[in-house]
Please model this.
Amino acid sequence: MSNKYLELTVPGVRGLHPYQPGKPISELEREYGVSDIVKLASNENPTGPGPLVRQAIERTLDDLARYPDANGFALKGALARRHGVPAECITLGNGSNDVLVLLAEAFLQPGLEAVHSQFAFAVYPLAIQAAGAAARVAPALSWEEPQPLGHDLTAMGGMVGEKTRLVFIANPNNPTGTWIDGESLENFVSSMPDDTLVVIDEAYSEYVEDPTYPDCVSWVERYPNLIVTRTFSKAFGLAGLRIGYAVSHPGIADILNRLRQPFNVNTVAQEAAVAALADEHYLTSSVRMNNSERVRLTDAFTALELRQVPSVCNFVLVDFDRPAGSVYEALLRKSVIVRPVANYGLPDCLRISIGTPDENERLISALTEVLTESGG
Ligand SMILES: *Cc1c(COP(=O)(O)O)cnc(C)c1O
Model:
């Protein structure tokens, strides 16, 4: 579509393309006339919110005529206790996406640069570009490495220069499911100049069980140029409410606090997040189910002779060794939604989120049929 208003936009906005979300269930119903749909496309928690969260949400109904608490007092307090940091280190966001964009708005402009890896989370290039800054993209590790397609910290470090204000690291990364150990990551963070802020995005941290995986929130005290982001959208199961946060030096939190919308996190999200933090049982059982179901899926992909990136997350990146669009379409016709990743530069791959045992069985039989029908 030609759009004459593009000429009127500021330079960073002119080249933007919309974020491509996973196909919503209602859209597949409308377009294909299918029902009983399995959506494994957006790395959502398949179990839905737990009982404590549901009760907390009910209780907020009486408050909905009022504006939310703009300072998120109760939630920041709960997060401060959880992480052992002062509440003034915390910035709440409308999803952690909000915080990532605020960081780009606050610290980038035309003439400045931000570094991220190839095949990193798609929001980084969007936020950098919208701020009018230049993205320096470090080549990812090769398929032959222990973390295939993961971040190459040496390559990333090599791209940091005088104009670099932000470095985005997803640990673990989406869409690859790869991760970085504590020693390598801390060496990287400590090597960064003071005026280069390192953003470590820990959206999937709750799923990682390896003892060498770091909790970078505990490093914020040591590295004032480190910002760690977390979300309630994945293991906590609250993607639809939009709630995430950053932990940083209070000086950085102060800047984000000036820039953010005063009521960027709604009342329901704040109350639900407080309840979610109190429900350790929900979190542990979500993670346990995910990590055992991940074995079911990866074993099935291996049996189908598909190459895959070893994942520590709630999704797996699978390589079909040919353009994967036809597999995606064929799965849609069987009421299964997965995620194409051609927009990440991975046209032969699909990203498949881990669902409930039933959903995963449906995916495995649909995929087996599709691959058999198409002659392997
Ligand atoms: C899902 C995801 C997020 C979180 O998004 P929200 O805005 O908090 O829902 C952040 N980073 C990565 C790498 C993700 O995959």
The chain has two domains: 4-48+281-373, 63-279. The pocket of pyridoxal-5'-phosphate is lined by residues 43, 95-97, 121, 170, 174, 201, 203, 231, 233-234, 239, 244 (CB under 6 Å).
